[in-house]
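Session log. Operator J.P. requested a structure for one protein chain; no other inputs attached. Running the standard single-chain path with token output.
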Amino acid sequence: MIRLARRSPLAGAGALIVGLVIVAALAAPLLATTDPIDQDLSEALKPPFWQGDGSLRHPLGTDHLGRDVYSRLIYGAQISLTISVLAAFLGAVVGVVAGLVAGYLGGRVDTIIMRLADLNLAFPLILLALAVVALLGANLKNLVIVMAITTWMIYARVVRGLSLGLREREFVQAARALGAHDARIIARHLLPNVLAPVMVIWTLEVARIILMESALSFLGLGVPPPTPTWGRMLAEGRDYLTVAGWIAVFPGLAILFTVLGINFLGDGLRDLLDPRLRRQT
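Structure written below.
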């Protein structure tokens, strides 16, 4: 991490932002000032603490139902990170396996896998997510599956391209000549050589999934209430932008800085893991 910060200050800033979001999500029960789903209409639309009627009990104000925006923001980070990390991991596993098999075996297997990826890419991803969520229902498990469906083909295409070149390398040919099985060659020789770009793609896909989950929650197709999510907080605050803008502004800023931090971190990892870029720096 120190090497990353020295080489790219933006990547160091991204790592700091991501670290703060992870800590906030993990320590939400300790950091929250109130229960995020408790309603108190007598406290509705209270401003942040730095304004005249604000208080430290609700440091970022309250929404139209008297729920604490700060506490909902922290607990919302748990949902966004859980869905994005799990979905990106599941998509990476499926995509990497598919890409390795397609690139190494080639032939009909390669054609079938790549045509499935092309078919998936042909659909607008947000429209595909909307259709699947509307069909299966909106809950945490279904959202993870939906997001994984929209991301596996990106890994598959990149890994397949790398595998096509790796399978002709001398160390792979030597392993094949010594009688190693295809599964062993893929696991021991191809997989380690594609992990660096996969890690970079994974970080960027986490950011994209956070945006997509927020969009689905904004449309009412995310995790059902009363569970707090950043996208739902945006949707609830859009009717109060002129009188209580903090309801929508703070979750919007949380999405903005989290995605920005993850993108900065992904760029830094690319510079750190790419040997050609290491030689240049």
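Operator note: The radius of gyration is 22 Å.
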